[in-house]
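Chapter summary example.
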Amino acid sequence: MEERSKNFIEEAIEEDLRTKEPRVKTRFPPEPNGYLHIGHAKALTVDFGMAEQYGGTCNLRFDDTNPTKEDVEYVEAIKEDIRWLGFEWDQLLFGSSYFDKCYELAVKLIKKGMAYVDDLSKDEMREYRGTLTEPGKNSPYRDRSVEENLDLFERMKNGEFPDGAKTLRAKIDMASPNINMRDPAMYRIKHVSHHQTGDKWCIYPMYDFAHPIQDAIEGVTHSLCSLEYEAHRPLYDWVVNACEFEHKPRQIEFARLNLTNTIMSKRYLRRLVEEHFVSGWDDPRMPTLCAMRRRGYPAAAIRDFLARIGVAKADSIVDFAMLEHCVRDNLNATAPRYMAVIEPLKLVIDNWEDGKVEPVTLENMPNDETFGTRTLFFGKELYIEKSDFMAEPVKKFFRLKPDGEVRLKGAYIVKCVSWETDENGEVTCVHCTYDPETKSGECERKVKGTLHWLNAADAVKAEFRHYDVLMRDAAEGEEVEDFTELLNPNSLEIKEGFVEPGLADAKPGDKFQFIRMGYYCADPDGTKEHPVFNRVVGLKDSFKIG
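The structure predicted for these 546 residues follows.
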């Protein structure tokens, strides 16, 4: 097998291991204000994967420096998703655990004349900051004395000022060509209770200040993050140096994952949930990992997909069909075969004896005995798919038609002799005769069509949920006022049909290939009396490799 070339992160890590770093230590720092989605899965796979590849460790550190929408619910969900993908962290940490140290270091920077308390509002700061082509200008409060800044910062901590009244800013360079270096905010006032620290604090450090401090304290060697933080790297290094850390982590950026027909903004995903466009964070149409797990995507398939797309320095858009290809590839090898009739049509075998049933043994996986077999019962009244019969067949229709023959899988060849219709002309029942000399395994006679079926007497009524993309991509030149205008109104279709009796005992998460119909996963909404199955992916693959 040809060895793949190393990506730029691997090259950087290996260079560091040769020259200065004795080991690799990374971290995955999610904010606990929502559920992880497939984009986060790429980031965590890079963070955990690089540590795993080079025999190092990776910490899970919750970036909970903004308490406004953070919650313990999200903390637990994120931990579950990471373990589901097959990773385990070295240390479980919280950004809030460093609040005392961050405050101490902020005071240190004030004493060094490298930070000041500013009274400008958020809008005024934006005006003073300048633009990409014009330098900013100094705040009128930039030259406060060290003593005044220390006093004001302590009073901020003690809760004397309302939200937004004052901000602690780094004193760097308002004329810097990098806007992130134009006296960035380090602390803001938020009178909000925190899910870890309660009401101890009413000032909270900004991400760009807290994150490099946390990395340095933990001994993180490689701070791997998405490409939008590339412009923040000078500030990351400034904080590490200004705080006089001996250990200096190296920040490396990589491109985020973008998928066709997929929204990755956590803010937008939250809107979909809160405004009830979807049933919840785990709605199988969502790109969240809990939703993909519920829909039936195997964790191994997601890891395979992320390995195939690799790590790049430039943004690109990946076809969602590639993810479905990886899911289909995995399930083809792991999902046992069963029969389900999703749009049922009654089939009656006229020359079959009333009350007679005959056992039919079927393989659970073709050509793999380890999956075992199961027994169904074949009787006089059956269900087949409505689409498997045509009273006026089109050319090359090899399924059931007037005077046509098909084999019923594992059983007999049957011939259509008549059919019944309702007042609208819809076919409601097909009558056939069977040839008793054509039992599967005992007859060499061939017919072109083989149909799946269920015995009407013991088939279990079931619900099937078919999903399409939740969001269509905007057409070229199309302008929309709100992203919800791109939502697909036909993203969910519910059908009522039947499954084999044994599938009444399917547990949530169990996956199957329903012969000729697609791959399905048992949903938690199902019961023994009325199981529910989500279509994971269809059988046909639209993705072309290479």
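To summarize the output: The longest strand covers residues 413-421.
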